[in-house]
Recover the amino acids of this structure.
């Protein structure tokens, strides 16, 4: 199975949680840190991403980039 990594442009994330809800592997969460705009950005907090890209397609602000890791 493919492996992936999610990169979040934290300064633009509005903490809507749509990506967290959409992730089939549940590797995303809302962070405890606060970005400069006062929101808690999403973050990948554990391994298990399969690089499906559902989170990135769900994000209304287009702040997620999904990378496929080839081993």
């Amino acid at each position: 199975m493919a492996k992936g990594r999610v990169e979040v442009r934290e300064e633009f994330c509005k903490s809507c949680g749509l990506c967290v809800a959409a992730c089939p592997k549940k590797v995303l969460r809302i962070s405890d840190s606060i970005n400069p705009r006062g929101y808690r950005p999403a973050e990948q907090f554990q391994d298990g991403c399969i690089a499906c890209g559902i989170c990135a397609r769900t994000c209304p602000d287009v702040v997620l980039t999904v990378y496929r890791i080839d081993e």
In short: The CA atoms of residues 9 and 63 lie 5 Å apart. The mean pLDDT is 95.
